[in-house]
Design goal:
Multidrug-efflux Transporter Regulator, Chain: A, Domain 2, Arc Repressor Mutant, subunit A, 9 helices, Putative antitoxin VapB45-like DNA-binding HTH domain-containing protein
């Protein structure tokens, strides 16, 4: 069974790509410490240079912080993360189930400018954070998440990161087939219909997955 805290699933580059975060931003989150001495995102030591160093809980931490970009400055993000961890009494507070309730209030409190309305035509920060958090799944009785749905993939073909499947690689929620396998077969020249038959999906699902994955790789 994969340990959500200690087993490295993805590289920094792959995590940044899947979460739509610049590599350098994620690197800063992994190395910038709060006043309490904890990094914003809890990576682990890779077995070898360039190997995976991001466990599942860290993927979720980075995803939560992603929702704050454009609303809070880097110093404010650090302050808000530290306040949240202190309030929850949990070093991994950014990934706990309480983030979906009490955590939203803490982040809004630290937002720049008007707390109810975002600047420059952006949606209100509370609305944005709440929308992000609905893609995280927790099981009853477990305060830490077990699955993250990737927001960029449409509802017709939900794609998830679940450490129980594919060792953290994005998989189709419906049948747990790795997205890379689907895209590779299509890029090899197979038709959408053939790929759909191969993996038990519809043509529309395969098209949505391949188009989205191609945009992410561009």
């Amino acid at each position: 069974m994969v340990d959500r805290f200690d087993d490295a699933l993805l590289s920094v580059q792959d995590t940044a790509r899947h979460l739509d975060i610049p590599d350098r931003t994620l690197q800063r989150w992994l190395h910038h410490e709060s006043a309490a001495g904890s990094p914003l995102v809890h990576g682990v030591q890779p077995v070898k240079r360039g190997w995976p160093s991001i466990p599942f809980v860290a993927i979720v931490e980075a995803y939560v912080l992603r929702s704050l970009r454009g609303y809070l400055s880097m110093p404010k993000i650090r302050e808000a993360a530290e306040a949240l961890r202190l309030a929850f009494g949990d070093e991994y507070g950014l990934a706990t189930q309480r983030i979906a309730t009490d955590g939203v209030d803490i982040f809004v409190e630290y937002a720049d400018g008007d707390l109810a309305c975002a600047r420059d035509g952006q949606r209100p920060i509370r609305e944005v954070i709440t929308d992000y958090l609905r893609y995280i799944a927790w099981e009853s009785g477990d305060q830490y998440p077990y699955r993250l749905r990737l927001r960029q993939y449409p509802d017709v073909a939900p794609v998830i990161i679940d450490p129980r499947f594919g060792w953290g690689a994005p998989v189709v929620a419906e049948n747990k087939v790795q997205v890379d396998a689907i895209v590779s077969l299509w890029e090899a020249g197979e038709s959408l219909e053939t790929v759909a038959d191969e993996y038990g999906l519809t043509r529309d699902q395969v098209e949505a997955i391949c188009r989205t994955a191609r945009r992410r790789a561009a």
